[in-house]
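User: Design a sequence. Structure:
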């Protein structure tokens, strides 16, 4: 808790300490729902040979995850006492936040984790995660040596019609007006990269951005002959993400209400939906296989399964799964709003501000200042030392 002391620049009375507390009855309810949840029988699509996931999540993986989540997973050991509440948590409610650049909502509330340095020359850094991640990937899995810097991790909780510009405006107000920083750097992946680009392009206090997601697809008529093998693999990965890999995103972009209601009715449904994304998006080298699935003998990573259960438990026990889909309306709505931040010239980041990218082999960034041989979509979780090094 050395890093829980608010700096003198923080607006008086606007920021309050916050403690994560999950009632025992909520944990019991989650386990009861899990025990009563049915896994359907075998069919061709859910049991392809060798754990093939081209048609979706393998049934055997969900069986193993359900069994471990229901019988062996211990929220108390893995989360609050030893991890989540070991980090200083803070809350800014509607009164403290005030009006944003886009709207004035008394219901807006921001919960964030921060490590405040006592060094007056420390450089503030805002770290943003994406979907289906959470601050757990930045704070818990692998200790990240950023203890001399401010560490802020979303998420926005509100029932307003918030888009990415609104979220960027709220985070800008948090960093500048409430926390009182005169400048800061932003780092983000996935949705965090889009919001980070908006912060760097539109908000004066954000002076630099390091992003690890910016999908750029093969231009029409472009030859692949002059590309390296790594670049060709990146093109192939991007093509897969744009076709087979984005069907979930189209659902979340066009029918977020339906998807949110379905995912919030049953923890096993949420585990299947989110678990598939981790299995598809993470570089297998980051979580080597250490177990085999009963029935098929297919190898899998139990360590990764535990990380998935951590993330899904957080979504379920805080009741935020249905409210976490808001950005997909902007990025994937068919015939909807204009392109989001990475594709839009209005979010160009110009000098003297700094913009840089970290490229991970399966991460979704086309060209980068810093390239890493391993790592995927959840870069901070998979390669915890790389992001701090790139920030430096």
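Assistant: Done.
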């Amino acid at each position: 808790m050395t890093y829980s002391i608010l700096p003198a620049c923080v607006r008086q009375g606007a920021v309050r300490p916050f403690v994560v507390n999950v009632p025992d009855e909520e944990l019991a309810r989650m386990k009861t729902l899990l025990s009563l949840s049915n896994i359907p029988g075998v069919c061709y699509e859910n049991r392809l040979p060798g754990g093939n996931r081209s048609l979706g999540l393998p049934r055997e993986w969900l069986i193993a995850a359900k069994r471990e989540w229901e019988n062996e997973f211990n929220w108390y050991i893995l989360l609050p006492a030893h991890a989540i509440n070991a980090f200083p948590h803070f809350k800014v409610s509607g009164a403290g936040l005030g009006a944003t650049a886009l709207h004035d909502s008394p219901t807006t509330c921001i919960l964030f984790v921060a490590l405040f340095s006592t060094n007056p020359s420390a450089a503030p850094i805002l770290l943003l995660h994406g979907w289906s991640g959470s601050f757990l990937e930045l704070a818990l899995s692998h200790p990240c040596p950023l203890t001399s810097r401010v560490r802020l991790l979303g998420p926005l909780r509100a029932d307003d019609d918030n888009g990415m510009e609104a979220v960027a405006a709220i985070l800008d107000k948090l960093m500048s007006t409430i926390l009182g920083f005169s400048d800061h750097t932003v780092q983000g992946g996935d949705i965090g990269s889009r919001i980070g680009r908006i912060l760097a392009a539109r908000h004066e206090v954000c002076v630099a951005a390091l992003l690890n997601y910016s999908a750029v697809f093969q231009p029409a008529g472009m030859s692949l002959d002059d590309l390296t093998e790594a670049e060709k693999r990146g093109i192939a990965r991007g093509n897969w993400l744009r076709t087979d890999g984005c069907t979930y995103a189209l659902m979340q972009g066009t029918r977020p209400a339906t998807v949110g209601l379905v995912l919030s009715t049953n923890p096993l449904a949420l585990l299947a939906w989110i678990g598939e994304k981790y299995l598809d998006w993470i570089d297998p080298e980051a979580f080597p296989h250490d177990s085999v699935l009963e029935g098929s003998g297919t190898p899998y990573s139990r360590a990764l399964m535990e990380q998935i259960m951590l993330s899904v438990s957080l979504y379920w026990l805080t009741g935020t799964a249905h409210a976490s889909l808001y950005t997909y309306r902007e990025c994937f709505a068919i015939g909807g709003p204009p392109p989001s931040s990475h594709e839009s010239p209005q979010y160009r980041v110009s000098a003297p501000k700094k913009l840089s990218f970290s490229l991970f082999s399966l991460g979704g960034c086309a060209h980068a200042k810093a390239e890493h041989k391993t790592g995927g979509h959840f870069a901070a979780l998979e390669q915890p030392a790389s992001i701090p090094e790139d920030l430096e």
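The chain has two domains: 24-43+51-79+229-331, 87-217+344-391. Residues 100-104, 141-157 have pLDDT under 50 and may be disordered.
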